[in-house]
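[recover] target loaded
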């Protein structure tokens, strides 16, 4: 079968073994990263769309490093890469990586914990505004009628005075809280791994899960793991 990458051989001195780096999700344009890798290794790139587990197994069979974003890294992929020395998630969440398989094979996994924290927090804040301000029905009415009289589907709610409950108070949760406080919202947070004093330092109340879930708005900023899977709605 035709493979979805084109190998590029890096320049190397005589006697120096070839190093192979595989990068998934090549739809993401990362010119500086790719240029830097090509200076020291052969880079194989696979797109997220259309790449099968078989394709990835074939690509990593002699790889030393795997750069990953969204494409699932399954136990079978790990087993197919006997030379693999590490996996780097160019992002935060590592739920798409078979961590137990990595541990079993002694393969370290790294991520970029500060990646996109402002961007993600702003995106969540924008969605909250859209819901409370009824942006979608308002836009539909404006596009249809050219004007929108107050009605059940267009009456806007205020942010000020409402309570926001955060599930998780890491980097993104703290950025989101800062934005909410700027709109005079009350912010509470549930995070069993952050000391209450740290949460209070950011102007946020530390509460239990039930209290956070009872808020006017709930925003989830927790890493997906076996511990957090299904946390909302249990």
């Amino acid at each position: 079968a035709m493979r979805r990458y084109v190998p590029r051989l890096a320049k190397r001195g005589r006697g120096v073994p070839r190093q192979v780096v595989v990068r998934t999700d090549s739809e993401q344009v990362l010119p500086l990263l790719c240029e830097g890798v090509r200076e020291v290794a052969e880079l194989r790139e696979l797109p997220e769309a259309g790449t099968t587990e078989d394709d990835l197994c074939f690509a990593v069979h002699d790889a030393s490093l795997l750069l990953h974003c969204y494409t699932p890294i399954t136990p079978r992929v790990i087993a197919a890469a006997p030379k693999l020395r590490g996996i780097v998630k160019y992002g935060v969440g590592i739920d798409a990586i078979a961590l137990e398989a990595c541990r079993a094979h002694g393969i370290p996994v790294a991520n970029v914990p500060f990646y996109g924290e402002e961007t993600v927090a702003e995106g969540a804040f924008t969605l909250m505004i859209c819901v409370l301000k009824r942006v979608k029905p308002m836009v539909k009415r404006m596009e249809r009628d050219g004007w929108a009289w107050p009605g059940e589907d267009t009456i806007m709610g205020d942010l000020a005075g409402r309570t926001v409950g955060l599930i998780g108070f890491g980097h993104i949760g703290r950025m989101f809280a800062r934005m909410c406080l700027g709109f005079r919202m009350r912010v509470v947070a549930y995070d069993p791994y952050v000391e209450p004093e740290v949460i209070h330092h950011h102007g946020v109340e530390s509460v239990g899960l039930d209290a956070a879930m009872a808020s006017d708005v709930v925003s989830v900023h927790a890493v997906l793991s076996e511990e957090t899977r299904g946390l909302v709605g249990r």
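[recover] notes: The first strand starts at residue 20 and ends at 23.
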